[in-house]
Design a protein that fits this description.
By secondary structure, the protein is mainly alpha-helical. The chain has a domain of 158 residues: MetI-like fold. The relative contact order is 0.16. Helix 2 crosses helix 5, helix 5 packs across helix 7 and helix 6 packs antiparallel against helix 7. The protein is built from nine helices and no strands. The protein is elongated and about 75 Å long.
Length: 227
């Protein structure tokens, strides 16, 4: 195949113009779903870490079982199980809800471990010193322990959140019209690879700024950095 044929196969202007609106719609779905997953996953993960901090051994055992299961199981298997399995018990969730629920729970499982590691890294002397000044345990956690733990948690949390939010592409397995699904549909109709190249470019446009933002947060929250 000559260079002209390669350009026509991967960078066809007419195909790009035809399917650009569909790809942009899919990109918008990818963006807001990713944001919803990150927010829900981080909030739930922090809540689980705090529950682990104040709970008895039995509750902690069940919590760790939940976390280990969602960290170990492939996301796609959970997506398919919820989407095709829940209707058999009378629970019918749409594709976006299934994908949001699955990835939020998986992110929460990883985030819980990261938050717990950050909280555990703050020495017991910090708790004792704060309580000696008259602070309650809740005040010590809020004003002393969590600010220090967050500095340790930001780098792994941002990396994990980005990695899991990119799994929105799994929505194509259950027919959700996110970016990859729209690109594959356009490819099947056009017989041309241009929509896949456009989807790759849109993924870069979406996630490269987020990666830069994550890097900036890591530097800002690093130990010894000026605030």
């Amino acid at each position: 195949m000559d260079i002209t044929g390669l350009v026509d196969l991967f960078f066809n202007g007419a195909v790009a113009q035809t399917y650009l609106p569909d790809l942009l719609r899919g990109a918008w779905i990818t963006i807001y779903l990713s944001l919803a997953i990150v927010i829900a996953g981080l909030v739930f993960g922090l809540a689980l870490a705090l529950i682990r901090l104040v709970s008895n051994r039995t509750v902690v055992w069940f919590l760790r079982l939940f976390v280990d299961c969602f960290r170990a199981v492939p996301p796609l298997s959970v997506v398919l199980l919820l989407y095709f399995g829940l209707p058999s018990v009378g629970i019918d969730l749409s594709a976006p809800w299934v994908l949001w629920l699955t990835l939020s729970l998986i992110l929460a499982a990883f985030a819980e471990e990261i938050f717990w590691a950050g909280i555990s890294a703050v020495g017991p002397g910090q708790w004792e010193a704060s309580r000696s000044t008259g602070m309650t345990n809740a005040q010590t956690l809020r004003y002393v322990v969590l600010p220090q733990a967050m500095r340790l948690c930001i780098p792994p949390l941002t990396n994990r959140a980005l990695a899991i939010s990119k799994n929105t592409a799994l929505g194509t397995a259950i027919g959700m019209p996110e970016l990859l699904n729209e690109a594959q549909t356009a490819l099947s109709f056009s017989g041309n690879a241009t929509p896949l190249i456009m989807a790759a470019i849109l993924y870069l446009i979406i996630f490269m700024p987020l990666m830069a933002l994550a890097g900036g947060l890591e530097k800002r929250m690093a130990w010894g950095a000026r605030t």
